[in-house]
Amino acid sequence: MGEEKKVESQKQVKYIVLRTTAGQELNVALMLESVAKSMGVEGIYSIIIPPKIKGYLIIEATGHHVVHQVSKDIKHVKGRAMGALSRDEVERLIKTTPLVEELKPGTDVEIISGPFKGFKAKVVSVNVDKKTVTLNILEASFKMEATVPVDSVKPVKK
Questions:
Q1: Given the DSSP bridges, would you call strands 14-20 and 56-61 parallel, antiparallel or unpaired?
Q2: The NusG-like N-terminal domain covers which part of the protein (predicted)?
Q3: Using one digit for the tens of pLDDT, what is the confidence trace for 60-79?
């Protein structure tokens, strides 16, 4: 078992960025996996689709040559970055913040489930412990407040 760790640490893993057509990230990732398996390519460990960035994939591999070999004839692949990302940069790109931390009083949101589904509202207060938000429903003809679970709302982008 100690020898396995030694071999594992000797592998130089790089995180290579692959540019794709926006909206086709999942298709490209699936095609990359399929091509790598059919060609018997060793050296690709994971394919990451960053949730915050459209049009890019991050491939954990032993080197650029492996990524080039697998991605050269795949539709929707636009190009590769010459450098490589560090593990910290990859973690920062894929880490998502809980919605409770994003919501602040005054934030405009849309209710995505429950009896007020589709309504626009403004956050009045956030209860982090109970994971609920108190909202002022903007589309009501009178002042109406409702307390709903955090996962029932999504922030409206301005």
A1: antiparallel
A2: 12-97
A3: 999 888 888 898 889 899 88
The residues facing 147 across adjacent strands are 134
| Weakest-pLDDT range from 53-62, 82-91, 110-119 | 82-91
Count of C-beta atoms within a 10 Å radius of residue 123 = 18
Share of the chain above pLDDT 70, in %: 92
Instruction: Give me 42's structure tokens.
Output: 């060793």
* 11-94 CATH pick, 3.50.50.60, 1.20.1250.20, 3.40.50.11030, 3.30.70.940: 3.30.70.940
- DSSP three-state, residue 72: coil
Query: Can you tell me the distance from the alpha carbon of 16 to that of 20, in angstroms, rounded to the nearest whole number?
Result: 13
